[in-house]
Batch of 3 targets.
Target 1
Amino acid sequence: MTEVPVDLGPVPPFWKQRHLLGLEELSAEEITLILDKAEIFRRAMEAGHRRIPVLAGKTCVNLFFENSTRTRTSFSLAARRLGADVVDFSAATSSLSKGETVVDTAKNLEAMQIDAVIVRHRTPGTPHLLAQNLRSAVINAGDGPHEHPTQGLLDILTIRQRFGRVAGLTVALVGDIQHSRTARSNIWGLKKLGARVIVCGPSTLVSPLWEQLGVEYSYKLDDILDRVDVLNLLRIQFERQATRPFPSVREYALLYAMDRRRLARTKPNILILAPGPINRGVEVTAEVADGPQSAILDQVTNGVAVRMAVLWLLLAVRN
Ligand code: NCD
């Protein structure tokens, strides 16, 4: 048995989750538990512990049907740093092109003795369908525009680290709210932890219906700048849109790009987040993205810690 260099603390009895499908499904207590464990993993990484082999002998499969840079690499690193084996499934060269269903594909992978499936798919609900059909832990790495729970968790962890709390803060999600799974996961998580959320973007991408999720909405970024603590700048998801939601990217940038002029109108300790990939000059200028208020790369570091926490919580205590 390899020695584990870090005390991860106990897993409290209220933790019963077998999958991570979305933040909608989690309680505030469960979200806080994941964040607390992620904090331990983050500190361990900073202390130079690249290997904490609590999942030695486990196998995770990355089942990605949509493009990914950060999420897939981050899950792979997280699993490997916990001592697990990782298999990358490539949708483009698989038998899906021969007509096999996603459930059959996953069941065949499961027959090879795996413990976790990390799935990204353009169809909302795909992880939920797999969870109903597999014994393995299923982790949603993005299901179309629906949810991206580990992105929500890493955003919230970054906020909590900066402010020492989440409750009472005002967080604005700016951009393509309609097609953003990051927005939905942020809304569920932030609301459960007591933050105020404003969704902001053009009227083709933000609607009053969002109020049903307990958030405020605004069409004008300039109107909300002075009262927000956090701005989470979302990418325009052109690949999910049937028609262009605004006349030109330049016009969008004029109204919504976070630039130096707008930054000057925010609170002095404003926190700038973006899930990435960022489009410099569209949702944020290079100056702001690389500036002192931006925690964009810190989010990426937290992403590994959050995914280590999720994998450990789902796999270490699985019966
Ligand atoms: C996001 C995604 O794919 O949902 N990126 C990510 O996972 N870091 C956001 C996006 O694509 O804009």
Target 2
Amino acid sequence: MKHLIQISDLSEQEIDELISLADDILQDSARYREALRHKTLATLFFEPSTRTRLSFESAMLELGGNVLGFADPNSSSATKGESVADTIRTVECYADIIAMRHPKEGAPLAASMKSRVPIINAGDGGHHHPTQTLTDLFTIKREKGRLTNLVVGLCGDLKFGRTVHSLVHAMSRYDGITFVLISPEELTLPDYLTEGPLKRDNVRVAATNSLVSTLGELDVLYMTRVQRERFFNEADYVRLKDSYILNRAMLEHAKPDLAILHPLPRVNEIAADVDDDPRALYFRQMFYGKIIRKALLISLMRNYECLK
Ligand code: NCD
């Protein structure tokens, strides 16, 4: 694999290998301090980001590499009308690997078709977010000890949430997964996912609009933000934004070893009184995000060196 555009670019074996490498990095980070010395990562973020961009940059720096990029797309030549293809032809002269986030679905794929150096999709519109999924899988593996035989609740904006879409693609391939899809009628999972991976892999699926009634059955609860930037009108967003607010009292109905995940940022969907509950893993999850991104950077650079 040269680029990572969607999670299905990785086989289960490749995901296992990344998780093992990330485990090793966690155990002995000093051994990897020079792993990407003299290599440069460019971060091209055409949409806002805190965790994804900074975790990529901090991962690269901790591996002894360099980073460059722009934090504000308005300061790039994209505002002058430059195409993604030309931007990539430019940046590949200055960097060995590129992480790109773009509001247009397919932009990182288009970039990968022109690029000499590896492209990592750091989120494209409402489509894919494979490195968040690696983060989610690594978190579940570390905290639950397995990626099989789990009841996984996906709650919130299942229509526009790209992290949910990539996670569905990934987890459908593991044995014994049951998805509980918890969303308002207007924000249900797109048909291309229910008719695609969920049907193809014969995944058990239940759908509901009630979080409370289903909380007790879940091993993993994946909360998400209603994706304001993907709505066509503000009134719909305002009506739907507080559809689910998880609070501490509700957790009385949950399993004692429930894993509560959230890709973050949260807006209102998890009350602050949940943060101290040992089942709240979303802050640890973003730490794991940096570690698995280190594993990914090392592995893509190794493959690239072999292919050159
Ligand atoms: C997510 C994203 O950008 O899709 N954030 C992230 O990368 N951790 C989730 C979101 O913005 O709601």
Target 3
Amino acid sequence: MPRDLIVLPGEGIGPEVIRQALRVIDWFGARRGLDLTVREEAYGVAAYRRHGGIVADAVRADLVSADAVLFGATGGPAFEEIPPEVRRAGSLLAIRREMGVFANLRPIVGYAELADASALKPEVMAGVDLVVVRELNGGLYFGEPRGIADLPDGGRRGLNTLTYATWEIERIARAAFTLARGRAGRLCSVDKSNVLETGRLWRDVVSRIGAEAYPDVRLSHILVDNCAMQLAREPGQFDVLLADNMFGDILSDIGGAVSGSLGMLPSASLAAPDADGHRAALYEPVHGSAPDIAGKGIANPLGAILSVGLMLRHSLGREEDAALLERAVRRALAGGARTPDIRAPNRPALSTEGMGDAVIAALAETASG
Ligand code: IPM
Ligand code: MG
């Protein structure tokens, strides 16, 4: 039975990078027997003009039941024409929540091949291989009450609520422990337990889940400010990092500096499996819409392409193909393939499509040994 994928290229550089990701999917279809029905749908201003929503209701209802959703990017100047309530209703955040994808995996790899593009010293970044597991459905992003209120003194007051219940911490902790178990077996949990009650609860619950169910995983805890420093100083010390929604957002961007560019980072956002074993899943490059370079054909498609790799691994059960794609990306980089964001000194940079060509060529070479 073919599996079904919904593709939402979105806006800004989204469509450009997704185009290259789709070429990679086609390659796996033609050469490795990947049987995937691809349905492309509008997301953003185009969808708003046609349907009055950022994403059509009929599409939205199917995001949860699809085997996977591949998302490009959202946002940009054109968004201004969409009324704020429509924007909020169809926002990426609303979709993440509606799909129930609470476990956000953001792998961060320090490619030795990209040492010259990284802000870190070669010996600090090379060989880094960690995953930030970010809680994606709760915390400060969704807590109520929230808003901006007028004050009697003529000023205003902004309010957001940071809240985590035991069950929310438990399920993301289990996801992170399970991932660590399949890797180097080390989990470092991030919090601000020296100041925040949510952080104290976070630490308690993660410790308990570890002791009860994952005694084989080596668990440590780190305060978020120290973690930020350690990520810049010695990222190689981490295997799996577990963080709440806000901290995970911030820390994963530091990963962009380790890899050389935010354009390198893929992500997978996974829901809990339902009674039939089906699990909603959203795959997206971490970079966002980058309106300043949109339409120029120079965006780095590797974040989107590597997101296809995560989809092969986490939704389609094709670990071998995922590993093949990751090796091919490495090979393309080793061969000097560079978009401007990871440009090497004195070497011409490739276009988005050129990088797609390089990955396809490397796939063919890697597959044949
Ligand atoms: C991310 C982005 C989003 C987030 C924005 C675009 C809402 O920064 O995926 O990291 O904060 O989650
Ligand atoms: Mg972010």
